[in-house]
Amino acid sequence: MLHAMRIGIIGGSGIGERLIDQMDARHFRRVMPETPFGHPSAPIVVGTYKPPLGPPIELAMLKRHGEGHTIPPHKVPSRANIFAMKLLGVTHIVATGAVGSLCEEIRPGEIVVCDQIIDRTVSRPRTFFDSAAVHVEFAEPFCAVTREWLLEAGAKQQFKVHACATYIAMEGPAFSTRAESTMHRNLGGHVVGMTAMPEARLAREAEIAYALVALPTDYDCWKDRPRPPDEQTLLAEILSNVKKVGDAAFALIETALADVSRIAGQPSPAHDALRLAIWSDKNRINKEEVLRLAPLWGRYFGLPAHAVI
């Protein structure tokens, strides 16, 4: 039921641009799909990536915060981003995002492949389906198949990769108060960030396998620590951690892409997430809405597969 495998990369500009540098300019294009929810954050780079080792793989790369990082977390057009990925035939998404650590064990500069999430966002559209009762299973919010693929790549690295962690998705754009940070720890969170929700839930509704590589740049404010003597020193420390964890994430993703055959023939439960999720009487759902969202659920209404753009 799937199109040919295509990996989507959603995150900051650095990782995507480093992958683009390894593409043949003749074999990639920038597209800005129109979706029922508007345009994505930025043009999506689509093309064939040839890893240093392994066969070529089709990629679609998106800057979540737009060109120049101009879109704040609470304004990211997640529905448009995920719908656009679906239009492009993306079957798996590897998302990256900066986080603060909520525990001593996860140190800044290490990598976290999260397995759970707690959604504390409040103002963001969180579903594609406002005209029907659609209830996807979300007990395991991140695709186990994709996570295992990333963790196998992580095992080949020289840096620490944490295999299990709960991500607290906060609204932002301000960082936590110390009381909120302590509460997030008490809730069972290991890292806190602003971007993984509703992105992960929407990917499930779009039947795209989704995994998150979280990038701890510092300890969140629950932890008392000596403050650097001046703001320049503090900024230099943060930028150093950002570079360190960005380099690590790129190395992990590059290694995973070199072994993409590991998941190429392995179905993910996410790829059939809507099979039992549409609770409404299909005959009573507005026909215009069925057609508007056809790339997501058309096959359950007997519609032909959408053409990949």
Q: Would you kindly provide a written description of the structure presented here, covering whatever features stand out?
A:
By secondary structure, this protein is α/β, with parallel strands linked by helices. The protein has helices at residues 13-20, 78-87, 144-154, 178-186, 199-205, 231-257, 261-264, 287-292, 294-297, and strands at residues 7-11, 23-31, 44-49, 57-63, 92-101, 111-113, 116-120, 161-162, 166-170, 191-193, 209-219. Strands 1, 2, 3, 4, 5, 6, 7, 8, 9, 10 and 11 form an eleven-stranded mixed sheet that branches. Helix 1 packs across helix 6. The protein is globular and about 65 Å long. The two termini are 17 Å apart.
**Straight-line distance between termini:** 17 Å
Specify the overall morphology. Answer: globular
**What letter string, H or E per element, gives the SSE order?**
EHEEEHEEEHEEHEHEHHHH
Q: Looking at CATH, which topology would you report?
A: Rossmann fold
- What is the CATH class designation? Alpha Beta
The CATH H-level superfamily is: Nucleoside phosphorylase domain
